[in-house]
């Protein structure tokens, strides 16, 4: 619309300027031709009255006669012969006469003219040489008498001003009409574009059933038709992917649930075998211990899969209780015999309390500390303090080589392995993912980074106040 308006304004302005220029030239040309023709007629009529050579009195009378020949009385005349000169008005300085015009008259017998701007008005100055022979004006040799005429172009200027006003009055409505047409054209063109923008935004927000009305057969209609086809294909693909994801989650939950019963039986059997392993031969004892360890890992994997399934199904619930956070962290370490393996910096008892789910806080701390002991190096540091904005900050720092930069963005993803060649780990590959879900349910954040002095550092931030439990939701 702006481009259309600019083109319209440029076109109207250019047309107005060219029209004004041609009209102004025509007005001035007509006035100039009229003045020159009238002056030449009067000079031819009055020139025979001049004597040869003329005196000063004759020059003054000739100038007065020429000035009086114009009915409006706007002419001012200067007549010169040799060193003599006379004007139609006494003591008229005739300032409009320029040296260039006088030189042009001296060098030619043709009539010359010049427009002179005097500040408040413009004057037409005409100069010619009087030619006559034997007392009769004719086209013979120059007599040496020169006539200069000054005519103020007040009337012509009034015509030009009126022309400017007329051009302005014509240009403004034309420009307004052009802008109106631009608005109508832009509205007609941009309406489907705006509809396409709204539809695209709706698709981006997840409303995949959004469609556009197809009207006409132009390029915008083709674009709307293509958009509808793309949206339909996208909706179908997303529906299929969601169905596959739901089936995969349901399969994992069903498998995990079905495995719990035989695993419970296997765990009971391996506990009995562990007690009698000392009385078995070495090969059998080694096999028993291997089976026991793998059964524990499998049970942990099944428990983690069940927990992830609860998050995906939105069935995970917080059971909040106001507890001493430092005491909760001490119990987590003591329950896993990590007290002597971890360097702790905790606040005094009851110095930092918060409403959290004790079981889920235990899982968060256990996963982070266990991950540091398993993949990092001792000493492992556990720190708890109150941050700005009433939040509890838990930091776990190990002394290992740190986390590669390419791995950092993926550490909280499920089953992510930084080493593709490593097919088995001591953990389930879900610990950090479960940690992130538990922290998110509390309305907090967890992030991983590398400490400037070496080692990986995991930071958990939990709000110290919560009003009601939050249910988990699928990813």
Shape: rod-shaped
Q: Level of helix content?
A: 40-55%
Looking at the structure, the CATH topology of the largest domain is: Beta-Lactamase
Mean pLDDT: 80
Distance between the termini: 45 Å
What CATH first level of the largest domain would be assigned?
Answer: Alpha Beta
Number-wise, the strands total: 12
Q: What ranges have pLDDT less than 50 throughout 5 or more consecutive residues?
A: 134-138, 420-424, 466-475
How many structural domains can be distinguished in the coordinates?
A: 3
Number of helices: 9
Organism: Streptomyces plumbiresistens
Domain Histidine kinase: 254-466
Keywords: ATP-binding, Kinase, Membrane, Nucleotide-binding, Phosphoprotein, Transferase, Transmembrane, Transmembrane helix, Two-component regulatory system
EC number: 2.7.13.3
Q: How does this model look, in words?
A:
It is a single chain. The chain has helices at residues 2-46, 56-68, 99-107, 154-204, 219-276, 282-313, 325-335, 358-375, 431-441, and strands spanning 76-81, 84-87, 112-117, 122-133, 136-152, 321-324, 342-345, 353-356, 380-387, 391-397, 445-450, 456-463. Residues 134-138, 420-424 and 466-475 have low confidence and may be disordered. The strands form three sheets. The protein has a five-stranded antiparallel beta sheet, sandwiched between helices. A five-stranded mixed beta sheet has the order 7-9-10-12-11. The protein has 475 residues and is α+β, with helices and mostly antiparallel strands. The chain is rod-shaped, with a radius of gyration of 52 Å. It has three domains: 2-161, Beta-Lactamase; 219-313, Orthogonal Bundle (Helix Hairpins), CATH 1.10.287.130; 321-463, Histidine kinase-like ATPase, C-terminal domain (Heat Shock Protein 90, 2-Layer Sandwich).
